[in-house]
Amino acid sequence: MRTIYSLNPSWAFSKEAGNVPASMPMDWEQVNLPHTWNAQDGMDGGNDYHRGTCYYAKTLVKKELPAADKYFLEFRGANSSADVYVDGKKMAHHDGGYSTWRVDVTEELKEESLLVVAVDNAPNDRVYPQMADFTFYGGLYRNVNMVCVPESHFDLEYFGAPGIAVTPEVEGKDAKVKTQVWVKNFKPGQTIRYTITSRCGCKNFVVESTETTAVQEIENVHLWNGRKDPYLYTAKAELMENGEAIDTVSTRFGCRTFKIDPNEGFILNGESYPLRGVSRHQDRWGVGNALLPQHHEEDIELICEVGATTIRLAHYQHDQYFYDLCDEKGLVIWAEIPYISKHMPAGRENTISQMTELVSQNYNHPSIVVWGLSNEIGIGGSDQDLLENHRILNDLCHTMDKTRLTTIAAVSMCKMDDPYLQIPDVVSYNHYFGWYGGDTSMNGPWFDKFHEMHPNLPIGCSEYGCEALNWHTSDPRQGDYTEEYQSYYHEELIKQLFSRKFMWATHVWNMFDFGADAREEGGENGQNHKGLVTMDRKYKKDSFYAYKAWLSDDPFVHITSKRYIDRVEDVTKVTVYSNQPEVELFVNGVSLGKKTAEDHFFRFDVKNEGETKLVAVAGEMKDESVIRKVDTFNEEYRLVEKGAILNWFDVTAPEGYLSLNDKMGTVLSTVRGKLLFAKLMAKAMGGKKKDGEKQQMMGFDVTPEMMSMMNGFTVLRLITLMGGMMDVKMTKEQLLDLNAQLNKIKRPKEKE
User: Fold this and answer.
1) Which of 78, 299, 550, 709 is deepest in the core (most CB within 10 A)?
2) Structure confidence at residue 674 as a pLDDT band (50, 70, 90)
């Protein structure tokens, strides 16, 4: 009978070793798995985290292993490439850091053997990901097991899959369930017993056969119905010999139907089921990606608390345990491979192998409805090699899985008529209008335009968000990294995106702050701070509660800006989020009255005198906070960017005249502004182009879509961004001189 033996404890680890040791090194660091060597340096900024080959070593004592005919090493995740050695002999190589893979070591195991795994996360041009806004943590960061099986067994070498695939087909009130298995050394006289068991264990459907495929019927099937009722069955296959089971595999599955309609959005089991949720990265503070079960459990509970119905599991295959939790909780999932940002002609085979493993290993999860082909891969345009790569992946998904759809996450600069948008079944876009460029009002109209242009192609929003740390203001502005601007941004996006029924899914970027060691912004380097929750999972930002107000049925009330205590204004605005119909606010025990709000965002004007205790009441729910009147702004609330040449609040901005804090679109709408920026823009775009030659900026073609985004940046922010991506850096004196020239140009009157 199959036994899974954990090899997680007691490994020797080295960053410095240059080759495979001949004997157990006694001077290496002792570690337990899961382990990453980037748990600290992968999120502290500087883009200098250790990338290279590191070595893990462990002594295998055969008598300590369960008795078996065959022994397979099982790696649940080794990022990003790995070589396996037993007593110095190379046994296997694997490319792709996020999937399960196994190695048959039966013939090489002695009474005592030295197992060495060389894991490499160094840059290359063939294994994805290589360019992306997150840390590529190296290590054996998921479980490593020895799977011990008899000579005849369910296949362990079929792309790391479980050896069993279940395909339910709902027909009216019943379901036909096809179970397929893969068997190694299937011998005459052996049979396979297939059993389907209901969740309560009170219903069993059993059939025994010599075939590796069986079809069973479930009458009056209990549907898997998302968050409402995530009902799961269990399918078990037993390899029988002389009336006894010699090997067993099992999997849970759900019976459901779904459809993605270009006008009606997502439909689950024949009923509208709006997919409104979040994206998730798999790391956390101080741990990196070496997560334990309790970390996954905490994440799923927080996602459920916010009321999400869907998760985009970006940008790679996640831990099987997390997919299991999604099945149990009824979350609808987008699963994808890390074919991201930069198309590599030499990486095609790796996209194929990673997609094959993703689909094979996750086929049985009812939570998954779409396979993601790529993310922002068309940021620089789509050439023929990129298009062919996508067609291959799309065909592969449909060949392997005829029950699910394919999708991509395109980026704002991707033209609406780009040919690669026509390859998958459905499309989503990553938009940051209101953060990186443009303004929040551009989001909804953009999707209306796409829907009008492609009425038969379902469209969703795969990423949107903005960064927030512990900075605060009563006058939130785009790019200030305050919690208040993040709240404003998400309030606006909720109202625009959730009101468009045709959008098949929306995914906030991101549920949690995550490691991105190359980032240097917001005052805390090494992280992307767009999360609704901090990276340590200890603080839910106000925007978390904005979504909870719209998506959750669990009664609550929340006063925003609790960390913003000291305020200078005589009358301050207080916002309360709640999913209850009415909120009453008490100021030092005195009621300001009750308010209703169709958008779940309740606004109150509060006199700011001395120290004020605020109490919000909604039904039986209550929340409290404190504000305090001060004469001068508390500078601890304001971001002063380390290393910044000039901060926005240092810019002189006379009323009625332009400044570096104005948006490029506003400046370029004036004649003098156009002339002022002609030389700067020419330099940024690589000088004057010949007839027919495309203008480029930051390596990308300058399209109307890109110009629209650029016009939404403030002058200061755009120059700062260009300085980080190309040689267009300006000194403080040059910036102040430019600002002085802008101060002489009258601001154009706003159109009514």
Assistant:
1) 78
2) confident
Q: Do domains 3-149 and 566-635 have the same CATH topology?
A: no
**What pLDDT sits at residue 285?**
97
pLDDT at position 644 is 60
Element housing 514 (H / E): strand 514-515
**Of 470, 457, 345, 353, whose CA–CA distance to 407 is shortest?**
457
Distance CA 144, CA 146 (A): 7
Residue 682, pLDDT > 70, answer no
Q: Which residues neighbour 27 within 8 Å (Cβ) at sequence distance 6 or greater?
A: none
Closest CA to 608 of 467, 474, 431: 474
**The pLDDT of residue 726 is above 50:** no
Q: Amino acid letter at 344?
A: M
The pLDDT of residue 40: 97
Whole-angstrom distance, CA of residue 619 vs CA of residue 616: 10
Domain 566-635 maps to which CATH number in 1.10.1520.10, 2.40.128.20, 2.60.40.10, 3.40.140.100? 2.60.40.10
Q: What is the pLDDT of residues 294-347, one digit of tens each?
A: 999 999 999 999 999 999 999 999 999 999 999 999 999 999 999 999 999 999
Q: Which of 376, 467, 521, 584 is catalytic?
A: 376
Instruction: Give the per-residue pLDDT at 728.
Output: 53
- Classify 43 as helix, strand or coil: coil
Average pLDDT taken over every residue of the chain: 93
The structure tokens 């002339």 sit at 675
What lies within 8 Å, CB to CB, of 568 at 6+ separation is 474, 629, 630, 631, 632, 633
Alpha-helix runs per DSSP H in 344-432? 348-362, 384-400
- The dihedrals phi and psi of 597, each to the nearest 5 degrees, come to -155, 115
CA pair distance 43, 524, nearest whole angstrom: 10
Strands across the sheet with 557-559, in order?
557-559, 571-578, 601-607
Is this model's pTM higher than 0.85 or not? yes
What pLDDT, on the 0 to 100 scale, is given for residue 709?
Answer: 62
DSSP 698-727: TTEE--HHHHHHHHTSBHHHHHHHHHHHSS
pLDDT for position 732? 81
107 catalytic per annotation = no
Parallel, antiparallel, or unpaired: how do β-strands 332-336 and 368-375 relate? parallel
Lowest mean pLDDT among 142-146, 155-159, 671-675: 671-675
Q: Rounded to a whole number, what is the distance in angstroms from the first to the last CA of the chain?
A: 77
Which range is least confidently modeled, 200-204, 349-353, 612-616? 200-204
Q: Superfamily for 273-551?
A: Glycosidases (3.20.20.80)
Contact between residue 420 and residue 389 where contact means Cβ atoms under 8 Å apart: no
Residues near 596 by beta carbon (within 8 Å), at least 6 away in sequence: 581, 582, 602
DSSP assignment of 264-311 equals TEEEETTEE---EEEEE-S-BTTTBT---HHHHHHHHHHHHHHT-SEE
The residue assigned the tokens 């779409």 is 370
CATH architecture designation of domain 164-253: Sandwich (2.60)
- With contact defined as beta carbons under 8 Å apart, do 43 and 133 qualify? no
pLDDT at 697: 46
Fold topology of 3-149? Jelly Rolls (2.60.120)
